[in-house]
């Protein structure tokens, strides 16, 4: 009876892993389309300059581009590392997202200070994760 239960559990795990992989591949394709659109928009703004864009909007566009890029890199790393999401990639994405938030919403000095504190906390987390990994190696 026990081997049958293990076979069922293994089959369920494989089916769910396949569904997850298909979903992540679909998400990667969608993100690549958005990355391409953002790249086209940034190139249009930089080289054609038919529209007036402030420096803040340009930097915001670049940070959105990096967010798409980081999410695609996270999905690639997921498949390369044997179906595992490395923590440091989520920290990179969080730092980039908070920097984008500071650029977009910088009206309140208190909010900017809180966001900067969140970035500092994420950088310390990243340092701790990397230093612990280096100590093991």
Which properties best describe this structure?
87% helix; mainly alpha; 137 residues; single chain
Short summary:
The protein is 87% helix and 0% strand.
Report the count of strand segments: 0
Q: What is the count of DSSP helices, taking H or I runs of 4+ residues?
A: 4
In terms of DSSP E residues, the strand content is under 5%
Helix-strand topology string:
HHHH
Structure characterization notes:
The model has no long low-confidence stretch (mean pLDDT 87). This protein is mainly α and 137 residues long. Helices cover 87% and strands 0% of the residues. The chain has helices at residues 2-48, 55-80, 87-104, 109-136. The protein has one domain. Helix 1 runs antiparallel to helix 2. The relative contact order is 0.08. The longest helix has 47 residues, at 2-48.
């Amino acid at each position: 009876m026990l081997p049958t239960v293990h076979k069922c559990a293994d089959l369920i795990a494989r089916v769910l892993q396949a569904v997850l992989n298909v979903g992540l591949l679909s998400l990667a394709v969608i993100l690549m389309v958005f990355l391409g659109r953002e790249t086209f928009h940034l190139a249009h703004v930089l080289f054609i300059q038919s529209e007036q864009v402030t420096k803040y909007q340009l930097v915001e566009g670049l940070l959105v581009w990096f967010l798409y890029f980081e999410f695609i890199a996270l999905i690639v790393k997921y498949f390369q590392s044997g179906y595992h999401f490395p923590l440091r990639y989520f920290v990179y994405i969080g730092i980039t997202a908070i920097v984008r938030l500071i650029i977009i919403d910088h009206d309140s000095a208190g909010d900017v200070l809180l966001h900067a504190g969140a970035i500092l906390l994420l950088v310390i987390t990243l340092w701790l994760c990397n230093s612990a990994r280096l100590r093991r190696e």
